[in-house]
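no rush on this but wanted to send it before i forget. theres a chain ive been looking at and ive put its sequence and its fold in token form underneath. i want to understand how the tokens follow from the sequence so walk me through it. thanks a lot i owe you, the record is right below:
>
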Amino acid sequence: MYHVRVKQNGEEYPLYEPLDEEMRIFEPVLTEEMGSAGSFSFRIHKGHPNFIHLQPFQSEIIVYEDTEPCFYGRMLKPEADFQNMVSIVCEGELTYLLDSIQRPFSYSGTIEGYIETLLGTHNSQVEDKKQIQKGTIRVTGPSISQELKSYTDTLTVLRKLAEESGGYFRIRHSGEKRYLDYLWDYGGENLQTIRFGENLLDLTKYVDSSRIITCLIVQGGEVEYQDELGETQTRTVDISSVNSGKDYLEATEAIARYGRIWGYQKFEDVTVPADLLEKGKAYLSEASALPETIELKAVDLSLIDTSVSAFRLGYWTQVESIPHDIQQKFLLSRREVNLLDASQGSITLGRQAATLTGNMNKSQSEVSDRVEQTAKETSEEINRKIENATNLITGGLGGYVILDNIDPETGKKTHPWRILIMNTPDKATAKNVIQINQNGIGFSTTGINGPYRNAWTIDGNLVADFITTGTMLAERIRGGTLEVGGTGLGKDGVIVIRDSKGILIGQLDKSGIRISSGNFSGQVDVGGSTDGKITVKNAAGTVIGYWDKTGLHVEQGTISGTDITGGTINIGKGTFVVNEDGSVSIMSGEIDIANLFYAGEDHVTLGDFKISNDGTNVFQSIDGSVALQSGNSGPLGDFPILVMQESIGSKMELSSHHLDVTAVYTNVMLLSGTSEWNDPPYNGNVGMILDYIWNDDSYGLAYLGHEVRSLQSQVDDLYDQISSLG
């Protein structure tokens, strides 16, 4: 059973007790997630005996599972409604690390030492009840290098470490102290099995193929070296020196299953090739496995059977479901518990499937990090250029400064008109020349007559082979080539595009062009002599369509719009084809247009009438009042027949032999259930009986009709004779 208490000034007061009518709360939901602070939400009436002890940021909410606390947190701002019901959301105790600030620093050393340093700063800034000690650290590895450039809360700094090195943070209690553990998992197995037909209610299985990598290019941080000119340069560490000359790793088994799918990973804090190789192998081992996540609803049987062990977060959990072909252990990474209704909870096993919003936010964060890193590298390069320029200027002893007063056209002396700074005193022999006159300043390395490849002229033009600058603000940059990527200073450069709110909507870097929102207009060439294509994926990373030189292919989703024009539309590989001449071919399936038209495998319905498509050649109304059939052993007999029925007991049936009758009398009922008609040669065949009644030479209706018409003719003649006597 669960219990909820509020702690204020060292005393605990009950908020929820299952057997106490006064200690009631409503809609209590506990959410726990590995590496996250978790949350607890509930509603409480202001008349609750202990409502007075609920104070934002002062009170601590504790949720007990039987006698063991499973959640500690603080309440945020409560919201009260018209009925004095107050909605409260609590954030887990990991968020206490938001209350301290880390000043900018640089660190090199072990992960354990890094965490201890951060917690030391945190504990020096907060009160005793929010202090956290270093706990068990199982995520270890080579030495790390971390640099913080801005004032940042402690939790954000720690989460960045988890993103780079993996693992999960959690708060653990021992005695009166809190400890921060850094783990790969929480170190155990749940004894309760999730089994189909027993405690499994619902299941959703995600397989995210968009994140798989089978070939990985690995790079580390930057190291300095001296080039052939003695200048200090930087290069990126790779694994080629310890990996047989290759700067990439391969996952052999994954390549055999999925093919060669390339990826790239940079570890900024690793500068030793051997350490980089080990870190790359560990990363590829995880990235080459097809990520699988199961989200399910399962009843925690411990809530109804005390002999069953409860589920615990971060523990490995056995799942057995034969219909879903699942029988393996998954890490219980998230669970949601309704304290009042166990069936309303859910459990997530494995890694949570990424959402589109999450991917975009993460992508924006990664872009920002890369931009920041590139800015750092650029700043360092600029500083080196400045240092080099300073050395050239301040160390440039020698040379000759000449105030030139010789008119170059006449050779006579005149007023000084330019300043020359040269490597020799003779203008004819000097190679390195700086010339300053009323039109600007120019630099030549080929003599006084130039060309001056570097110059700044009076009309505002700056001519230079290379420009080194920090921030450039320009109305327009045009001409030449703007280079991003490659191996030079801009190797990790990024061109980012943001909207008016500063939100990233697109980027261009060495991996390609990404557009996360907005519009794209203009011409894009795909195909031709290449096999390029545009691929569209859904939020789970699954390909739902692509556009290549063979056409537009939609595998999932919806095509919408007012007009679709062009050549052939082929749906279902020939099942439904609309040709460019307007003709339509439907090879299988059904057509259903509201209540007006339906076409299926055995019949077609048009308005109120049904037409057969199974060889029986029947045309009849939906209510059966009118039917027309040609003779192929259909439901009306072996020959053509027309049936019109006005009401129950009033029906007319005509075969094709009857269609030349000049008068038809309705309201005549021909019965087909007499015992005589069931004997040979009729055998219950109404059509044959009707044929016999009509065609018999002695008393058939056709013969009688003929005799009646003959008699009518004689009567008419007699009438005419009588009239003539009149």
In short: The two ends are 118 Å apart (CA to CA).
